[in-house]
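Our consortium's second objective concerns turning raw sequence data into structural hypotheses that experimental partners can test. To show how far this objective has progressed, the report includes one record in full. It was chosen at random from the queue rather than selected for favorable results. The single chain below, 384 residues long, was entered without modification.
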Amino acid sequence: MSLIRQIWILILSTILLSCAGSVLVSVLTARKSLETQLSVKNNDNAQSLALSLSHQGQDAALLGIAISAQFDTGHYQSIILRAPDGQTRYSRVAGEIQSPAPAWFVKLVPIRPSAGLGQVLNGWSQIGTLEVVSQSAFAYTGLWSTSVSISLWTFAIGLAAALLGHFAVQRLRRQLDDVVEQADALTQRRFIHVREPRTPELRRVVQAMNQMVGRVRQIFSEQAEQVDQLRVQASCDPLTGISHRRHFLASFESHLGREESPGAAQLVLVRVLRLADINRALGHQRTDQLLRAMAHVLGATGAQGVAPTCFGRLNGADFAVMYPHADERDDQAVELVDRLRQCFADTPGAAVVVSSIGCRSGMTVGELLTKADIRTQGNRLRAD
C-alpha cells in the first residue's frame, strides 16, 4: 500500500472517529440533560399538586377532580395517587403519543426520567403518595432534532477537515514527486536540485538528495574530464593536438572503405625538412610553437571553402591531410603550400616538402602513403 493511501486512510479514520465520537457524546449529553429537566419538572409538579390536594381533605371526588384538572392542562404520561398501604386510590394514564423521532432512535436512546413524588396530607395524617410522570414523547422530538442538527454540523466540519487534509496530502505528494523526479533525472544523468520543503522530515531527505546529486555531478565531471584526457591521449598527438599516426590511418582507411564516401579525394603529405637542425637552432619551445602553428594551418578551411576530412601527424616531421572532392590537379595542395609559406615566413632556414596524390574508394592506405612518400622525396611542391 502506498504512503499517500495510508495517510488518507489515517486522515479519514481520524475524521470519522472524531465525528462519531462527537455526535455520540453530544446526544448522550443532551439525553442526560433532558432526563434531568424532566425529573426536576416531575418533582416540582408532584410537590405543587400534592400541596393543592392537601387542601381538599379526604373527599375522594374533590381529589379526583383536582388530579384530572391538572392532568388535562399539562403534558403528563401518568398521575397516580396511592394510599399509604400502596393501593391506587386514583390514577390518570395517557395513551401512547407517537413521536416524530424514528422508532430505532427511541429504542437506541431511551429517556427515563425519575418520577416526581409528593406527600398528600390532611393535617398530621397522610392521605397518600402522589406520583407524577411527564410525557417524554416531546423530549424525544427535541432530542432527535438536536441530534440531526449536531450530525449535520459535525458532517460539515468533517468535510472541511477532509478538504484541508486533501490539500495537505496534495502538498506532500508534490514534495514527494519532486524527490522522485530528482531521482529519475539522476538515472538519466540530469542533475536537478529540489527546493527544501518546510516539513522537517522531508527537508532532511531533500537535503541528503541534493547533496548526493551534487556529489554525483562532481564525480561525473571528474570522470568526463578523465575520459576526455584518455581520448586525447589515445587519438591525438600530445604536442600538436591533432590525430596521431594510428588514429589518422584508421580514419583514412575508414573513409576509403565507406560506400557513401566521395568517389575521389586528395591526400596531401607534408614533410618538415631538417627538423632536428631547426630544433637545435630555435630550441624546443619555438620549434614546438612552429609545429603547433603548422598543425593549425593543416586543419584550417581553405579559401575555396573546402575543409579537410581528416588530418594528423604521422611521425616527428611528417603530416598528412585528406581533402574530399579533389582530383589530381593538386588544387588543395597548392593552396596549402601558400598558407605554409606564410606560416614559415618568420622562421629562417625552415622548409617543408608537400606532395599530393588522388585517391578513390577501394584503394589501400599503404599504397597511397607509398606513392605520396615517393612524390615527397621528389620534392614536387616546396614551401620555404
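The partners drew two points from this record. Residues 3-54 form the longest helix (52 residues). The mean pLDDT is 81. Both points have been shared with the crystallography group to help prioritize constructs.
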